[in-house]
Known about the structure:
Helix 4 crosses helix 5 (153-167) and helix 13 packs across helix 14 (405-412). A 7-stranded mixed β-sheet has the order 9-8-7-6-10-11-12, sandwiched between helices. The radius of gyration is 23 Å and the shape is globular. Among the domains are: 37-184, Rossmann fold, CATH 3.40.50; 193-354, NAD(P)-binding Rossmann-like Domain (Rossmann fold). It has helices spanning 7-19, 26-33, 81-97, 118-134, 153-167, 193-206, 209-215, 233-244, 267-277, 335-343, 351-354, 357-371, 380-398, 405-412, 417-442, 449-466, and strands at 37-46, 52-61, 69-75, 103-109, 143-147, 225-229, 248-254, 257-260, 287-289, 302-305, 324-326, 347-349. The protein has 16 helices and 12 strands. By secondary structure, the chain is α/β, with parallel strands linked by helices. 48% of the residues are buried. A hairpin with a 5-residue loop joins strand 1 and strand 2. The structure holds nicotinamide-adenine-dinucleotide. Nicotinamide-adenine-dinucleotide (NAD) binds at residues 72, 147-150, 194, 229-235, 253-255, 292, 306-308, 328-330, 355, 358.
Amino acid sequence: MASEQGFFAQVNRSFDKAAALTDHSPELLGQIRECNSVYHITFPIKRDDGKIETIEAWRAEHSHHKLPTKGGIRYSPLVNEDEVMALAALMTYKCAIVEVPFGGAKGGIKIDRREYSDAELERITRRYTFELLRKNFIGPGVDVPAPDYGTSSREMSWIVDTYLTLTGGELNALGCVTGKPIAQGGIRGRTEATGKGVFYGIREACALPEDMKELGLATGVDGKRVVVQGLGNVGYHAARYLQDAGAMLVGLAEYEGAIAAPGGLDLEKVMVHRRDTGSILGFPGATDIPASSDALELECDVLVPAALENQIHAENAGRLQTKIIAEAANGPTSADADEILAERGVMILPDAFLNAGGVTVSYFEWVKNLSHLRFGRMEKRHDEQARRRVLEALAERTQGGSFSDEELRELSRGAGEHDLVHSGLEETMAIAYHQMRDTRARHEDKTDLRTASLINAIDKIAICYSDLGIFP
Ligand code: NAD
């Protein structure tokens, strides 16, 4: 389905709707809205069969109001300049919404990763990094990429290795990219961070009885019927946490087709089936849906699009049978669909809020790289010993006895990096959700959560600019 407008124009349509509800000057709003820099690159690579191919790639830096800029790199045959500009803009707003001190950026390489060998992907990634460095589009204080659609910690490891090789001796070089493997300066909890953040966001929304009542739903994630589109990094982890919390996965969609089962699907079994057969189709006990996008129209409580943009558009929005759309992907709902769904009373948890878990934990990773210290290393044992002393004193006074060694170990356990990352992520998502909801309430609930989240983003970015004294 072709988009009603370009992706960047759609993001700007949402921005304009929110901007109209603020009292910032048109000049300032214009500065926030524009994309500051776009770097378009073409370079040749040698395929394994000796043929030379020209690769097209981009990096867009949407806003430099805070540095470095930050945003993923996607490998997709569909990527283009408009898309990276739109995604970079979403990154600017996302960082502001969750108070992560970065400007927004995004990169893309126009390839279908399935058509390239590992060695070819490595050559492409390393050359792309070299090109970014040549034009000062990468660096711990400049622009910091991360994984996105079609990339993972493996590509990030090639990026950091190339950067280290070319910049030799730069103290904070590990902070040039996030989403790295742990041994190369990555952080525990980054891989599942976006999906976990999606889960926290949905859980927060489902916890409010008045909002759920309006949708005709019970409170809590437990028992919710969920459909997930895209079982990659974000979709898989979101589905896993939702299922662990008692939600029922009634539909799962991948690019080869979708499957449905009103009684619920076991995610791990589906993943094993896909690994063994190469497809989710044919999963025992489930109904096959050969046209994957039809799964979006399954009856459910929460629809989680976690693949690509513009999946829900003017043509299919009227047929959706969900109460909540949880935008795990970036831009899955077109601006026209947004209006149709608002009229139908569907709650949309907007992308710039809901999938911000990735950039939040990337921020923690970047801070870890700059501090050269693992979170929890200094205080973990100290905290454990302090808690142990309190517990022993308590046991003596109240029971005249003591806790078992097992109980003491469990009750006094200090927080390690993984615990701290998840706690920081949970706190961030909860605060951002309530800020967004409060803003909606300030506008007498006449606006939607996307507009409310963008009002918050604009207000926070405006503070950075107003201190410069340039804008009226
Ligand atoms: P991924 O490459 O790990 O997974 C995407 C999955 O979607 C793949 O399994 C792919 O086969 C599937 N897919 C592709 N087209 C599909 C279709 N038409 N129908 C059903 N499934 C389809 O990518 P990801 O990192 O999980 O990213 C997914 C989305 O989340 C993107 O919009 C991305 O920008 C956004 N996002 C990712 C992160 C992150 O940390 N990775 C952070 C924020 C937002």
